Fold these 2 entries.
Entry 1:
Amino acid sequence: MDAEKRILQELASSWVSLAAEYAENAVGVTAYYIYGSSEHGASTANAYFEQDGVVVFPDLLVGADDELLWDLQDALVDDMLDAKAAFVAAGLPAPTEYRLEYRVEGGKLDLQLEFEQLYGPGLREKSPIEGIEYWLGDRAPKLIRGE
């Protein structure tokens, strides 16, 4: 297996495991969506969950232990930074954006990557913390609730 595939496989495996652990006591969860961005010296990552047909922020996942939320988010970012370091060590360009979708039933995994700078001066006017909205559109939970 080449280095890029190995790095991405390790990242995806860890992210799916972290999301599954966080959601283990929540019923009606059919999918995990994990969004990560790392560019211009800033990194962010979060997991979102489809529960009863609605994609929700992790703190709104009914049945989850939200005391684990900070641990989940820290681990997601740490994994992404470890992957970035592994890409650099292998002499490969590191993605700037990760979009992971995991379907619980059947274990279907889809990982999409972006390698271009997406945020910052002259680029998108919004922040990478709204990346889930760019990715999932109207299905995404809104950062500013009520919009």
Entry 2:
Amino acid sequence: MAAAISNMPGDVHRRIRALGNEEKAKILQRFFKTGPGQYGEGDRFLGVAVPQLRRLAASFPALAEDEIAAVLHSPFHEERLFALLCMMAIFKKADGKLQRRIYDMYLANTRYINNWDLVDISAPHIVGAFLQERQRDPLYRLAVSESLWERRIAIIATLHFIRRSDLADTFGIARLLLGDREDLIRKAVGWMLREAGKRDLGAEESFLEQHAGSMPRTMLRYAIERLPEARRLHWLKRKGPNTLFV
């Protein structure tokens, strides 16, 4: 990456915070469940929209890795999102050596990629993209992590594969997560199964044939929500009568 002036992270902080909106920040804190005991407990928001962050990230093309890491470690959600957008942009244009560094930095900082939108916007474009032509073992290790966010990274990263009709790892990781107690994981798995079904409905229904009866209701409902009504009812009945109303 090109050299950057030493006060660049400070400039990033100033410019992001200048875009903040206090009322929007309060709405986002409720939306992303930041209260005590909730999945985003303690997260702080500035009230900056994603399109604003994308435009701002495009104006900082020369941030160095240590500068991006400094922003990624911010207590403010939007600043962490900005850092991920910068990482994605750099990764897309980088050679293999730099892509490896970005990927390694991403996995070394998962504790800061700690809400579902941060995972969803970045995991396919960094983790999935890096592993496309490599062994997928890191995803299976993430899938059994104690970290909710690492488990979500594992399944959401496979969206990169799904878009290339490469579905085996989506189903493999989904099997590992069938018993997950976190609603955010159940929704993510169901979503990826639905996306896989858009590429190969037979493969999705084969998976459901084996697991619909035991998978959590939320996961099943997400997986089948785009199927024709008759097929949705078929799979809901396989789960049990109460599923129709949950």
